Every structure is written in structure tokens, then in C-alpha cells.
Amino acid sequence: MKKHLFIIIILLISGSIYSQNIGVRNLQCEMLTNPLGIDVLQPRLSWQFDTNASELEQTTYHILVSSSLEKLNNNQGDLWDSGKVESNQSINIVYSGKTLDSRDEAFWKVKVWTNKGETEWSDSALWSMGILTYAEWKSTRWIGNNHLFEGDSIGQFSKLSARYIRKQIDLKKKVKNAKVYIMGMGLYELYMNGEKIGNQVLAPVPTDYTKNVKYNVFDVTSNLKEGENVLGTILGNGRFFAMRQEYKPYKIQTFGFPKMALQLVVEYIDGSRETIKTDESWKFTPYGPIKSNNEYDGETYDARKEMPNWNNVGFDDSNWLNLMWVQEPGGFLEAQMTPNMVVKSEVAPISITTTKNYSYILDMGQNMVGWLQLKVKGNRGDKITMKFAESLKDDGSLYIANLRDARVTDTYILKGEGVEIWEPKFVFHGFRFVEVSGFNYKPTIDDFVGKVVYDDIETTGTFESSNETMNQIFKNAFWGIRGNYKGMPIDCPQRNERQPWLGDRTTGAYGESFLFDNQTLYAKWLDDIKFSQTLDGGIPDVAPAFWRYYGDGVTWQGAYIKVADMLYHQFGDKKGIKDHYPYMKKWMDYMEQNYLKNDLMTKDKYGDWCVPPESLEIIRSKDPTRLTDGEVLSSAFYYHLLQIMKKFAEITNQNKADIVHYDELSSRIKKAFNDKYFNKESFSYANNTVTANVLPLAFGMVPDNLEDKVFQNMVYQVEVVKGGHVSTGVVGIQFLMRTLTDFGRGDLAYKLASNKTYPSWGYMVENGATTIWELWNGNTANPEMNSQNHVMLLGDLMIWYYENMAGIKSSAKYPGFKQIIMKPDFEAGLSFVNASYESKYGKIKSHWKKTKSKLEWEITIPANTTAVVYLPTIKASKVKINKNRLIKTSVSYKTEESGVVLELKSGTYSVQVN
């Protein structure tokens, strides 16, 4: 079994430094919601300081890892005693102790020495190992039933009832501890003695089940008792029994009927151990209340079919069927190293109106992703239907043309026993509006609650500014990004697609990382891409490859490399680079061997997708002056990827021949690109689209001393020809905002960001959007191709918000925000920004406001980091730090042509520039 991911355990220092106070926070596990059952032999350990102490730097650490809490409390590091290590590293420290076996537990703590003194030993933290070898799973049978039952069907609109499974067990002794290891395909809910285990929903995370299968681990000690117990599961369909089973099999990958494998490992107080495993003695019924569950089409629940106490002791299952041994899915059995989805928040509807058909339209006030909880009272057999949509037609009815053949309807059939409350288990919807039918009275908004569902990851970023349009765009981005986190990054949550397209996240993952702690999500996604790679090196457009699209592009497939680079830059995570370098190199070689002709990359599939078209009514532009040649896109992007691969080769100490090859090939491509596409008279590339010019500028491909002329030409295209509006599609928009700012036109980037007229992000806001549209003209174009909740058109906007407006940027030299670059563009057009970002070292804050005479800037730098801070003045005498004149303080600074540059250590600073 492959051990390809590492866990970061954030341990928060307790005790106090002798000369400074250090606060205490609860222990956390940053990379896992639950640090149980990992299958990484050398997890990476990290900790944070929780303190306001200024200029705090770690100098030494000492880690103890023990096999029991008792030994740890006695300072016996029988698994690993690192000794005192002189280092300022406080994240990603690799465990280097004894090799751990399956189900071993490791308790650990750390003591730290700093320039301010020594801490006490921290509180303890824990991780435990999962099942590390296939042999330990081999005797555990996969069970299921590969048959259709009454009401089931296979086809374009497949229906399959949920499988209700139970097993009664007799535990002869008192339980000391117990853990359960479960793989429930496609989705599961697990119960013990009537109680649901865990708060996860839609678990486990999706994979290509023929390549890798994730198991979840839960501590169930408190859920079991001596004597009779019952294990119960409900198996839903998920992506295993796919939404369109056996429909377009040449395109849509399916995996068969739901199945599961489970081990319950019980340790008794006398030291003995028992393992309960799935086998043919487990019983099931397909005749429970969940009659169908299909991610595209919705869930049907018949409350009349409920089986009270089905998952508890004493239930009569004599009429249930025995499950059968079935073939395993085929993929590696791996611990899930990223959080499951959960219900993260709730949304209350803002209105309910009656239609002419006596149904009701519910408005949630926000385009959201999840489902609706229903409260209803009625007669036995009454049927309530809820159909979901993102917007309404002019007549007030649902607008569903953009959902294609997704039926997106949940149905609840009442049992007729007073007030009934229900919500689905195995579907999710993207929606703002819901048509509700079947009530025999007028419901109120209090009868419904929206449940917001996405991966259980933390919000890490906040942003507000003096421009309300930009603030609403940020809110729209926040709702769109989190709604499309579904154990993988999907493109949209509402129609019959919901696929993890690579091109949507090439740069998008980077921007998203400021808003959400998406490290484990994207580490897992790199594995999805790797497992989807063909034997000769090809990478799909969608990974996992639920759709068999292998287009052999560069701008889409390049996400594999760009996401690994993001993880390194934002989180200091080298593991993704080291693990995936061979596969990335294989793909780069594949593209070179198959599509590099005359030193140019000739293969492109999608172009600069979703360029604003010449007419508001059309989806795809036909105007050749708006479209960028595919060879321009792929050649420039391949050149860019070569530069990143060279950096990866240096980081991983790979064969020096790789570095030489990347350098040599880059030079050839740059020359061929300029020879063919650079116009020396107009200082433009190809047909002079903004995208054709921004890529060579962003990638450093422009001939020496001509960058400014190419940039001025591009500015003319943006500012004059396009009237200060966006004219790029998915590829160009990834680099537009930062390139404008880096070359001195942050004011023009600000105009694009704050625009309210078409095409712009603000135009979406002005037309009622509460998420980001798929199309710049999403309110007028053909409805068959318009998701109102996509994130691909964000490009580098969120990066620009944080790095260029707030001034929160990780240094390339010291990644993961070990060193912070704080260089806001104070002259772009904003008068204040208040932003924060929770880095792996702690919270970074940047709050600035300016008037004509003064700039005030509040800065917080986490302990054990430093910041390089750029001020908009060349006169140090005009600067005050914490109310003291800079030139009278001990703060290190220098004066450059662009202004005063401070070098700050950790702490909170009040900076004033007159």
C-alpha cells in the first residue's frame, strides 16, 4: 500500500516564556479533522505560538513521542526523542522515530526555546495509525447485493434504493477501547446502537474507485457496551453507482452496485482483542424509506417505510436478506487524509410566495450548496416535492434550462404522524430558489432551513475594503468556492456535470487558499490526477476521470504542476512536489514528444475559454479578433511550466540533466515563440489580444528591454479598446490583475475589479449574482450553458486582493509565510483595506487606511516569522512605528527608489506615514 501523504499536526504551545506571556489554545490537527487511522509512516509535526510577544523567534525544539500517555507524561520518548534540535522550523518537521505498525498510537509533545526564553512542555497531542497493509484487509470481505429491486432502474435516470444493513454482535467483556474502519461505497452513514457515528455527510470523499478507495476511522469506545450491540449502515449511491449508470458508457465511468467493507477492532479491559468483520452473515433490506438517491436527480424518501429501531438491539430482521460477498472495487485501500464534508452552516429563507399553480417559491436569499430541511404536517401518503434552481423566470417560476437533464427534485412522502422533520442524506443541490409542492396549507419560511455543505475545512481569510462592489465580489467568491468543495474541487454544483475540471483550478486553487485551508483537499487532488494518468503519460481534463476526457491540452492539464507549486508556496509543502515529480515529468515528456513541433507546443483543446463574446446573447465568441490562437496559449504555458519544473528539480535534488533539459528547451521555445508571434513594429503578440500579450509578460518571455512597450500596448487594449473592461477568458484572467499591478498599473487593475458594467465581476453583482457566474454574460446568454455558480472566471482576482491590495504575500525564498511580503498598492484606488489570513504560523493582519495627508497601517506578524514591509515614501523621517519616529527606533529599514522598506519581526505594529 502506498504511503503518499503526510499529516501536519498543529500543536499549540502551553506554559509561558519567562519574560513574555504565552497563551494556550486547544490542540488542533490542521490537516485532519480527526487524527485517527493515518497511513503515513513519517507524519510531519507542526506547532504554533499563541502569543502577542514581539520579535519572538524559535531557536531550538525538543519533541517527545511516546507509545502511551503515561510514558509521555513521564518524559519517556520511547518512540522518538528528537533531543534538542537547533532550528527555527516549527512546521513540517518529519517524525523520525521508530516505525509504527497498524493501529499503533503515538502521543507527543514539544518544548521550545526562543530568543525570549524557554517554554514548558506543551499539552499532549495524539495520532494513531490506520491499517497499513492490504493483507490486513484481505480477510475482511466486501459485501453487497448486485441486483435491482422494486422501484429500481438503470439508465439515463438511474434509480436505486438505499441499502439498510445491520449486524448484531455480542461483546462478552467490558470494552477498553474500540475503533471502526469503514469503506462504504458509494456513500455511507454508520450507526452503533441507534446513534450515528461522526458528523460527516456524503462520506467518504470521491475517488476513482478502481485506483484508490478511502477508508474512514472512528473511535467508538463510548458507543459500545458489554453484551448485545448493533452495527448499522445505510449505503447510498454517490459516484459509485453513478448518476447516469450505463448511460453513455464511452464517456461516463461507473463502478457497479454499492458495497462495503468494515472492521471493528475491540480491545477489552483484560487486554484481549476481537475483530468483527463484514461477511455473509450481515443482513440488509432495500425496502427502507430512501427509495432513490441520485446526485443529479435528488432523493425520494417514503416515511411510511421507516423501520423504527432498525439499527438497535431488539429489532426483528428475520425478513431481511443476507448480503453476499462481492468483488472489491480494485483500488488501493488508503486512509482518508482529508476531511469529509459536513453541514458547515445554515441559511434561513427570506421569503415564500405562492405561484399560480398553488405551489410555493422559496427564496434563500443566497445561491448556496447543500440541501433543504423540511418541516411539515399532513396526512399519511401526502407527497411534498422540492425542486431546486438558481434563478427565476420573468413569470416567477423556476429557471431550470441551465440544469440540463438534472431533475434536482427531492420528494418526501408523509407518514401522517404529527409534525415531521426531514432532510436528505445522499444528495446535494446548488440553488437559491426552491419550488415546493404538495402542502395542503400555506407553509411559512420557518418550515424550511437551508443546510450549507462542504468539506470540513477552516475559513482562513477575511477581506473588506472601501469599495462595496469589491466587497460583494469577495462574498460571492467565498460562497462559490466553498460550495464547490466536495472532497474534490468541482466546477459547479447544480447541473448534470459537477466535475473536477483541472482548468478551473490552475490558478484558482492559489486564490482559494487565502480564503480556506485547502491544503489537504488539493494534496488529495494531486493524487486523483496521478491515478488518472495514462501509462504513456497523458493527463485527463477531469480528475478523478469520472468523465473520460483526455484532451491533451497544456493550460488545463498544467494544473497538476501549478497546484503542487501552490501547496509549496502557500503552505511550505514540499511533499507534493517530491511525490509527484516523476509523474509530472512523465507528462511534460509526453507532451514534448507528441506535440512539440518546431519548438512550439501545437496542441490546445479549449482555447481561452469563455472570452466575453461580441454579443450578450451568445455563449462563444466567433470574432477572431477576440480569440487567441491555441498554439500561443499552449506554447507560452508550456514554457511557464518548464520554469516551475526546473524549480521542482532543484527542490527535489533530481537528476541535474532535468535542469539542463528544462533550461535548454525553455530557450528554444522562447526563441521560436518570439520569432513567430512577436510583432516588432506594434510590440504585440499574435493578433494582439490581451491574453496573447499578458502571458509572455507574466512568464518573462518578452525580448530584453521591450517589456514596457509590450505592456503599454496591452494597457491600450484594456483601457482604450475595451473601455477598461475584462476581455480575457479562463487562461488570460489567471495573470491579468497581477501583471497590470506588477508593471505599475494597479489603478487599471482596480478599475477592472470595481467595474459594474459588462463584462466584469461587478456586472454580475449589479445583476443580482450572489456567487460567480460561468459566463461574463451569464444573465443574457443561451441558458443551456450558464452555471450561476462557477469559480473559474475568478482567475487571479483573489490573489490580487490579498497580495496586491492587502499586502499579505508569502516570500518565494521562504515559502509558507515564513517570510511575509507586505507591499499593498496604496495608489490603486482604495482608501482602506482590512484583511487577515490564518497562516500555518498564525494570523497575519493588514489593516490600512489613507487620506491625502496620512497613511495608517496596523500590521500583525505571527511568532517565528518575519515580514518585509514596503512604505510609499522615500523619507524615513515621515514614518512612525508605534507612535515613535522610525529613525529613533531599533527597527531595521532601508531606503530604495520606490520607498522605505522595513524588516519586521513578529508582533503588532502601528505604522504611520505622513
Structural description of this entry:
- The chain is of the alpha+beta class and 914 residues long.
- It folds into 5 domains: 121 residues, Immunoglobulin-like (Sandwich), CATH 2.60.40.10; 205 residues, Jelly Rolls, CATH 2.60.120.260; 92 residues, Jelly Rolls (Sandwich); 346 residues, Glycosyltransferase (Alpha/alpha barrel); 105 residues, Maltose phosphorylase, domain 3, CATH 2.60.420.
- The chain is 20% helix and 29% strand.
- The strands form 9 sheets. Strands 20, 21, 25, 26, 27, 28, 31, 32, 33 and 34 form a 10-stranded mixed sheet that branches. Strands 35, 40, 41, 42, 43, 44, 45, 46, 47 and 48 form a 10-stranded mixed sheet that branches. Strands 10, 12, 15, 17, 18, 23 and 24 form a 7-stranded mixed sheet that branches.
- Helix 7 crosses helix 8.
- The radius of gyration is 29 Å and the shape is globular.
Describe how the helices and strands are arranged:
Blueprint (H helix, E strand, L loop, with lengths): L7 E5 L31 E5 L9 E9 L2 H5 L6 E2 L3 E2 L6 E2 L10 E10 L2 E2 L6 E4 L5 H5 L4 E2 L18 E9 L3 E11 L1 E6 L2 E2 L15 E8 L7 E10 L22 E10 L4 E5 L5 E3 L4 E5 L3 E5 L18 E2 L1 E2 L6 E4 L5 E7 L3 E4 L5 E18 L5 E7 L1 E2 L5 E2 L9 E5 L5 E4 L6 E9 L10 E8 L5 E5 L2 H16 L24 H8 L3 H14 L26 H13 L3 H21 E2 L2 E2 L28 H23 L3 H22 E2 L4 E2 L4 H10 L7 H15 L14 H7 L3 H9 L6 H6 L30 H10 L2 E2 L8 E4 L9 E8 L2 E9 L4 E17 L7 E3 L2 E2 L6 E5 L2 E15 L1
Parallel strand pairs: 1-2, 15-24, 21-31, 41-44
Antiparallel strand pairs: 2-6, 3-4, 3-5, 3-7, 7-8, 7-9, 10-17, 10-23, 11-16, 11-19, 12-15, 12-17, 13-14, 13-16, 17-18, 19-22, 20-21, 25-34, 26-27, 27-32, 27-33, 27-34, 28-31, 28-33, 29-30, 35-42, 36-37, 38-39, 40-41, 42-43, 43-44, 44-48, 45-46, 45-48, 47-48
InterPro entries: 6-hairpin_glycosidase_sf, 6hp_glycosidase-like_sf, Alpha_rhamnosid, Bac_rhamnosid6H, Bac_rhamnosid_C, Bac_rhamnosid_N, Ig-like_fold, Rhamnosid_concanavalin
Catalytic activity: Hydrolysis of terminal non-reducing alpha-L-rhamnose residues in alpha-L-rhamnosides
Pfam families: Bac_rhamnosid (PF05592), Bac_rhamnosid6H (PF17389), Bac_rhamnosid_C (PF17390), Bac_rhamnosid_N (PF08531), Ig_Rha78A_N (PF25788)
